[in-house]
Amino acid sequence: MLEQPILSIINLKTYFYLEKQVVKAVDGVCLDVYKGRITALVGGSGSGKSVMSLSIFNLVDRPGKIIEGEIWLNGVNLRKLDEKQLQKIRGKEIAIIFQDPTSSLNPVLKVKKHFAEVIRTHHEGIGKKEALGMFHDVLFRVGLKNTDQILESYPFELSGGMCQRVMVAMGLLAHANVLIADEPTSSLDLTTQAAILEELMRLKNEGLAVVLITHDLGVVAQMADDVYVIKDGKIVDSGTVYELFQSPKHAYTKSLLDAIF
User: Fold this and answer.
1) In terms of residue numbers, what domain contains 141?
2) In a domain, 10, yes or no
3) Are β-strands 226-231 and 38-42 bridged in parallel, bridged antiparallel, or unpaired?
4) Is 78 inside a domain boundary?
5) What is the mean pLDDT of residues 187-211?
6) Can you tell me the distance from the alpha carbon of 172 to that of 131, in angstroms, rounded to the nearest whole number?
7) 11, 30 Cβ separation under 8 angstroms
8) In what residue span(s) does the ABC transporter domain sit (predicted)?
């Protein structure tokens, strides 16, 4: 029997109010995430999966707006917190690896400055030498070998794939209880993809709760414990990975499975 979820989303609705229509990007989503398990959120482009991850962090830009729902993290409803309180939780208790690393990294800051900000915000009392050792360690863990050069580089000096790995490393550096990985292996070669997925699996085995947002059911079959399928902002199917692959309930899930088998 599973323990209480560390992250629980209840009836979350995020709508975008455009000039002539309302886009219901997330429309009544409910899901639970548990420690020591990988929860996959699967859907195609425009399904609402990335908007949901932004909603959890209250980072939805206008004309988008969270209009309803509860987001419980460790017994605290994040929807009741102000921005200052949320800033203390982001990264420290729950961290995200964004899909587009180039737009998520400050172009005028070197990689080591990005890492130093994570340490300053979430790891008080760590000295410079210890922090530097942590920087090298997380870069090596995501498959980046020339760590001295990378730490001294600006984001624009790195390839898209390298920036992606830097973002993953920042997520690891935060030591959060919940890690949301939004398409963490997009734009990466197969060898690096394997290294990133192996690291996520290691974190899961250490007791971390991982939310894997992806369109790739092959990755889901390999990695996930629990799966939610999202289409047009709604969860249309859910279950353990075995249940979903063996007995999909929704036609959309069946079409996704047919595409890989």
Assistant:
1) 36-48+87-258
2) no
3) parallel
4) no
5) 84
6) 13
7) yes
8) 10-257
At position 219, the amino acid (one-letter code) is V
Phi and psi (nearest 5°) for 245? -75, -30
Q: Looking at the predicted structure, is the pLDDT value of residue 217 above 70? A: yes
- Whether residue 65 lies inside any domain: the answer is no
Among 36, 40, 32, CA closest to 5: 32
Q: What is the pLDDT of residues 156-188, one digit of tens each?
A: 999 877 887 888 888 788 778 899 988 877 767
Q: Contact at 8 Å (CB) between 232 and 51? A: no
CATH of the domain at 139: 3.40.50.300
The confidence score (pLDDT) of residue 1 equals 53
User: DSSP readout, 24-48?
Assistant: EEEEEEEEEE-TT-EEEEE--TTSS
Residue 119: band (very low, low, confident or very high) from pLDDT cuts 50, 70, 90: confident
Domain total of the chain: 1
Residue that is written with structure tokens 């410079």 in the block: 128
- Does residue 75 lie in a domain region? no
